[in-house]
Amino acid sequence: MLQSTSRLAIKICGLSTPDTVGAAMRGGATHLGFVHFPKSPRHVEADQLRALAAPVPAHIERVAVLVDPSDEILTELSATQALTALQLHGKESPERAAAIRQRFTIPVWKAISVKTRADIDAAKAYNGAADFLLFDAKTPEGAALPGGMGLRFDWTLLRGAPLSTPWGLSGGLGIDNVAEAIRITGAPLVDVSSGVESAPGIKSVDKIMAFCNAASS
Predict the structure, then answer these.
(1) What is residue 25's predicted lDDT score, i.e. its pLDDT?
(2) Beta strands 132-137; 167-169: pairing state
(3) Torsion of CA 121, 66, 27, 149, to 10 degrees
(4) Is residue 137 within 8 Å of 152, Cβ to Cβ?
(5) Which residue positions does the secretion signal occupy (predicted)?
(6) Of the given ranges (78-82, 116-120, 135-139), which has the lowest mean pLDDT?
(7) What mean pLDDT do residues 40-51 have?
(8) Distances from the Cα of 22 to the Cα of 15, 28, 84, angstroms
(9) What residues contact residue 145 under an 8 Å CB cut-off, 6+ apart?
(10) Residues of the domain holding 92
(11) How far apart are CA 111 and CA 169, in angstroms?
(12) CATH number of the structural domain spanning residue 132
C-alpha cells in the first residue's frame, strides 16, 4: 500500500533476479513488482517470488502483478506471505476487485488502461473497491500482454482529473522521460518495467539505478 508521504514513490516492476531486486533497493525504489502471468516474459512462479522477496526489508512494498487471477492463484500467492499488495492488470470489474480485497485482506491496486480522458473518468468506478489506481497506456486490441510494452498515453489527460483514490503513473516511462512525466502529471508514484530492460524480461542493473536517479532528481 502506498505510504502517506511527500516523497516520490518509485516502483520497479517485472523483477525476476536477485541482482535486479538488489539494484532496485539500492536505487531507492519504494515498491518492487513481481509478475505472475505465464504469458509474460517477466513471469515468476510463487516459490521464486517468495525467494526474491525474502531479503526485502519491511519498509519496501512487494506487489504481485496479476491478470484476471483465479481465487486459486490468489490463495497460492497469499500463502507465500511475501506480498504487501496485489495489482490487478486485467479486465477485473470493481466488484471483483472489492471481493479480492475483502477475501484476502490485502491492499488491491487496479491498473487502468488509458487512451482518452473518458478512460480516466471511468476509473471512479473503482473508488472504494481498490486502494490504488495505476494509470497505464491502453494496449492495441488483441495484444498478447495488457502492459509492459513500452507504450505511453497523453500525460496531460491527468491534469485536473478529480481523483479521490491514491494513484500512480505507468506506461512508456524511461530514464529520459520520467522527470517530464512527473512534472506534467504530478504523479506521486511512477512505475517502470520495459523502460529499464536490455531485452524483453531482462532487467538492466544500470538502467534501474539510472531510472531511480532520474525520477528522484
Answers:
(1) 98
(2) parallel
(3) -70
(4) yes
(5) none
(6) 135-139
(7) 97
(8) 10, 10, 18
(9) 37, 39, 40, 139
(10) 9-216
(11) 10
(12) 3.20.20.70
Q: Is residue 20 part of a domain?
A: yes
Cell numbers at 115, concatenated? 487512451
Is 208 part of a structural domain of the chain?
yes
Per-residue 3-state assignment (H helix, E strand, C coil) for 134-165: EEEECCCCCCCCCCCCCCCCCHHHHCCCCCCC
Q: What is the pLDDT of residues 58-112, one digit of tens each?
A: 999 999 999 999 999 999 999 999 999 999 999 999 999 999 999 999 999 999 9
**107 located within any domain:** yes
Q: Are 215 and 203 a contacting pair, CB within 8 Å?
A: no
Strands 197-199 and 202-203, bridge-based pairing: antiparallel
Taking the C-alpha atoms of residue 10 and residue 91, their distance in angstroms, rounded to an integer, is 25
In a domain, 2, yes or no: no
Q: What share of the chain is helix, strand, coil (3-state, %, to 5)?
A: 35, 20, 45
H-only helix segments in the chain? 18-27, 46-53, 71-78, 94-104, 117-122, 178-185, 205-216
